Amino acid sequence: MFTGIVTDVGEITSLKPVAQGQLHRLRIACRYDQKTIADGASIACNGVCLTVVASGTEGGKDSARNTWFDVDAAAETLSMTTAKHWTAGTKLNLERALKIGDELGGHIVAGHADGIATIEKRDDLPDMARITLRTTRELARFIAIKGSVTLDGVSLTVNTVDDVVFSVLIIPHTLSVTTLNGWRAGSEVNIEVDLMARYAGRLSEMK
User: Fold this and answer.
1) Is the same domain home to 37 and 80?
2) Domain assignment of residue 123, yes or no
3) Share of the chain above pLDDT 90, in %
4) N or C: which end of the chain has fewer CB within 10 A?
5) Tens digits of residue pLDDT in 25-71
6) What distance in Å separates the CA atoms of residue 200 and residue 80, rounded to the nearest whole number?
7) 18 and 71 share one domain
8) pLDDT, tens digit, 9 for 90 and up, residues 111-164
9) Whether residue 140 is found in the same domain as residue 83
């Protein structure tokens, strides 16, 4: 489980298709202490929970990102998320899995992206940015004003909702410590709807 609070921005340094293109092996450079990354650990990469299969270090001690870890993105991940567009050089919002006692700073996030939302408009305001996005009708029913949504691994509060279009406000700190400052109209982002909204919706269907 995760909280949607990004703890590092990593960078893909290599990507190799394997298993006849049905699996991509990614190497991601980061600032995490390599000694704390165990094989089998879960790390959310732009909101997608991926399993570490190897890790190591390279470069000097002063290197900005001298730790690396490898993960595999399977066929479903490639079809359902923006992982299909990732290449060497792509920056990713990273979050380590929760440990007992960690602060829940955002909201409960599974790291199982539900699909892709498309940015329709970005408005740069004096003290923040307003991002307007379009999603599918299936996912839009779980998005509510003042509710939570995870976009590219970042926990955000929904500002407005109009049918399948919704908006979020992003503060300067979030813009500076995540990849969100690079969002533009036409960009695709991973979306995970709030788990509580999903369960509530399922319960209402069974009445």
Assistant:
1) yes
2) yes
3) 79
4) C
5) 999 999 999 999 999 999 999 999 999 999 999 865 556 678 999 99
6) 23
7) yes
8) 999 999 999 999 999 889 999 999 999 999 999 999 999 999 999 999 999 999
9) no
CB 140 within 8 A of CB 111: no
**CB neighbourhood size of 170 (10 A):** 21
The model scores a pTM over 0.90: yes
Neighbour-count burial of 5, counting CB atoms closer than 10 A to its CB (0-12 exposed, 13-18 middle, 19+ buried) = buried
Are 155 and 5 in contact by the 8 Å Cβ rule? The answer is yes
Residue that has been written with the tokens 């340094």 in this structure: 13
Domain count, the chain: 2
134 and 91 in a common domain: no
Position 42 in a domain: yes
Quote the domain boundaries for residue 83: 8-96
pLDDT tens, residue by residue, 15-30: 998 877 789 999 999 9
| Residue 117 CB coordination number (10 Å) | 27
Q: What is the DSSP code string of 35-67?
A: GG--TT-EEEETTEEEEEEEEEE-S-TT-TT-E
Query: Per the structure block, which two tokens stand in for 100?
Result: 């007992």
One domain for residues 61 and 15: yes
Within a domain: 103: no
Q: Do 85 and 137 have their domain in common? A: no
* Rounded Cα gap, residues 59 and 135, in angstroms: 41
